[in-house]
Every structure is written in structure tokens, then in C-alpha cells.
Design a protein that fits this description.
There is one protein chain. This protein is mainly beta. The strands form 2 sheets. Strands 2-3-4-5-6-7-8-11 form an 8-stranded antiparallel barrel. It has a two-stranded antiparallel sheet with strand order 9-10.
Length: about 170
């Protein structure tokens, strides 16, 4: 299975919403970003941010290479690019009858750069997600990582938390 973060997914939820964000409200503080990922929707994932970076926008990500990916949060006031690295993936359960599995995902992120209102942004923190994988039975085997076939759907809600400073 091709890992993605927001599966670091790193493509996703397309909603008919334009990315909006208020300008940074504080010079520094605790940042919280929630990202909604669905592998059945190509493109970007819905992102909601609270903290020095505040607003509703989109997350896109490059493919994961060696458990790391470059992730971009795109808001009306600017973009924030960060490196996200998966540090742990723990299988919580798998049901071979229904072809469903749940995985606990954890990792770290670091801001690489910013544009617009977020030029000079710095920060880092952790992320976590509960990944739900659903497959179909094909030739008696569930789709997914061990079958050589992509699962029917991967869904995640990622929670990024940490400290961010804006100049």
C-alpha cells in the first residue's frame, strides 16, 4: 500500500470550499491543525488551523519516502510547508471477514518555509492519526498492504500540534 499522510496522505479531500484563513493573530504560540483525508478523493485534504496560523484551507503532500514527506498547508493568507516524518505505525486490529483494519499513526513535523503572512514561520511538533483501511475481497484475499493491491479506501483525521513562531 502506498502510505499517505493525510495517509501523510498525501492526497485527498476535495470540498467545494475556497481556502480561507485569517491573518496570524499571535506572534507565537501553540498551533493545532486538523486534516481530514480520504483516499477516494484526489487532490487536497481539508485543513483547519488554530494558533498563530488560523483558518480553513487545504493540505497537499508529496509521496512518502522513507517515512517522511513534504506537506504544504495552503490558506488565503499564505502557505506553510513542513516536513512530516512518521515515527510509529501500530496495527490496532484487522478483520479478515470484512477486510477492515485500523492503524495508530504518530510522527513529528517541522516547518520548512512560509509564504504571504507566514514568511519566516518557524516551529515543530507532533502529529497523530487513526487510519481506517477498507478493502474488498479479491480472489479470496483482502485488498491492502500484503495483497499487492491498493485498499478500496483509506480515511484519516490527522492532528498536528506544536509550537509556531511568526516574525
Amino acid at each position: 500500500m502506498n502510505k499517505t499522510l493525510a495517509g501523510l496522505g498525501i492526497t485527498a479531500l476535495s470540498v467545494a470550499l475556497t481556502g480561507t484563513a485569517a491573518p496570524a493573530q499571535a506572534a507565537d504560540g501553540t498551533e493545532r491543525v486538523t486534516v481530514h483525508y480520504n483516499s477516494n478523493v484526489e487532490g487536497r485534504s481539508l485543513a483547519v488551523a488554530h494558533g498563530p496560523i488560523t483558518g480553513v484551507g487545504w493540505m497537499t503532500a508529496e509521496p512518502i519516502v522513507q517515512d517522511a514527506a513534504v506537506v504544504t498547508l495552503d490558506f488565503r493568507s499564505g502557505k506553510v510547508t513542513m516536513r512530516a516524518t512518521i515515527t510509529s505505525e501500530v496495527l490496532l486490529g484487522i478483520d479478515f471477514t470484512t477486510c477492515k483494519a485500523s492503524v495508530d499513526v504518530a510522527g513529528r513535523w517541522t516547518v520548512i518555509s512560509g509564504t504571504g503572512a507566514y514568511v519566516g514561520a518557524e516551529g515543530s511538533g507532533e502529529f497523530g492519526a487513526l487510519r481506517h483501511i477498507s478493502g474488498d475481497r479479491v480472489a479470496g484475499q483482502c485488498q491492502g498492504p500484503d495483497s499487492g493491491r491498493e485498499p478500496r479506501q483509506v480515511r484519516e483525521i490527522l492532528h498536528f500540534t506544536g509550537g509556531v513562531t511568526l516574525p
